[in-house]
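Usage example:
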Amino acid sequence: MGKKRKHSETEAAAPVVKNDSAPERPKRTLLGWKDKNEDAEKSKPASVSGFRNKEKVLVTCSRRISYRYRHLMLNMVSLLPHCKKDSKVEAKSSKGATLNELIELKGSSSCLFFECRKHKDLYLWMVKSPSGPSVKFLVNAVHTMEELKLTGNHLKGSRPLLTFSSNFDKDAHWKLLKEMLTQVFGIPKEHRKSKPYHDHVFVFSIVDDHIWFRNYQISVPHNESDKIARGGLDKMTLIEVGPRFCLNPIKIFGGSFGGPTLYENPFYVSPNQIRALEKRNKAGKFAKKIKAKTRRQMHELANPLEPDEFADMWKDE
Amino acid sequence: MSYEEDIVSDDEMNMIDEDVATDSEAESLSDSDTENEITEKLAEPTKTAVYNRAGLLDKLQDISWPEDVPWTHKLTVEIDQGQAVDVNDDLAREMAFYTQGLEGTREGYGKLEAMGLPFLRPSDYFAEMVKSDTHMEKVKSKLLYEKKQIEESEERRKARDNKRMAKEVQSQKMKERAKQKKDDIESVKKWRKQRQQSGFSEKGKDLDLEFGNGKSFQRGGGAKKRPGVTPGDRSGGKGGRPTSRMNNKKREFRDSKFGHGGRKGLNKQNTAETTNDFKGGFRGGKASGNKRQKR
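Running the assembly step on the lines above writes:
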């Protein structure tokens, strides 16, 4: 609690502080004293505006989740140092209330809930907690970090750069999703578990109305701490770290784990329907065969063969 | 079958048949349509889907951070993707993601550098990584294994090529030797004839002419002295041994006709054709005709 009060105090006091703190001693850097006024001015408004990102994400999953999806969840936990992992939650109809309570208990402001159904389908709930919207995704094409094809590696807790494809600004619901993704997946600045370097990048890209997620390690040839060698930016390469997944938004609700529906994916077909359709297609096979057979019989009856005029040609002898 | 239907004229019958045919065609078409539909997406948007734009924007207003939040808090970069990416083309799609990441990083690093913030890990900064060392060891060993596999196959191919080359070179050499020998014998014959014609006079001069240029009758270029063999010995090595295989004209011809050396194994192995060929049936005894079909 003490921390919080402190923060609010600084917020209030900040504008006053700005004016009389002009002669400040130069900042020490790795290479010596830095006395650029420009930098000092630049760094100040950040503290002045008093904004501090205090995002905390509750990460949990439903009971009877399959191992692959559980690993995906654990990967997310290792990627987000500002998250709190909790034990599994029974995925009943009343799970919303339970989860809301849990979020409140943990003091977090958002939640990622991995819901596995039928050991096959993974749904991801991304929720802003007290009043914010919640989104339900269907998760496809899951690859976890454990796969040996993904050879990259990066610091645990370093803050990622978040890259969004430009089509996130196309529509209202994409805009909302972008904001939510930046808040949930962006690691708060100066979080105590975060590290001050940026060595990986998240890619969020909308292709075919799905959000694709990728995580790459950035490898730059460099010799000093914060100076890239000449042409280093051109030589920069990315190595995939994982995990990979693809989110298909199903619905956006107004409240947290509920509330009025704000958006519904008009193209969405649930995996259950797809499977049922497949099954029905397969089941039709026998009926079709029978139908064809009867049709053939009817046809043969309707068009009897002409009596063979040579049928009893040799019978007389 | 009722009586009425029996009377139906032929033409009408055909018509009905056609109807049936078209029906079945339509059915099959519709079937394929439904099969196409199994692509996790409806062909056209449902009309009843909710889209509350105002509500969405409201919520966006609610949750979004204040406008003047410095970029270092967000670290977001927007990248224009260019033209639309084909989802089903895995390579193109991944490439698009990669370029998006790369361009984003360049932009982000540019911004960070302009602000004078550290963003690259010093080489002596060690901390916990996302993937454990044991896991990275596994990754490394897999990469090494793959590399080794590729190298081995490369080597095998090279050896095969070399062998083929060596065979060609060998045969070329053999041919050359045979030709040289023939020439030599020819020249001796010529010289003998000449000498005979000229009545055995001025023998020293001719000898010099013919043999002075280092050629000789012996295989392997004359100048070599064979240890432990008398100069006149033409048996080519061990006393009782017959002349070498390649010098025997008859043998050579027969070899070329019937084959000699080389692999036999492949002739006896099944190939794709022979395995699928059941002409001979499975009762080996009776299907005698096809036993040699393979050759």
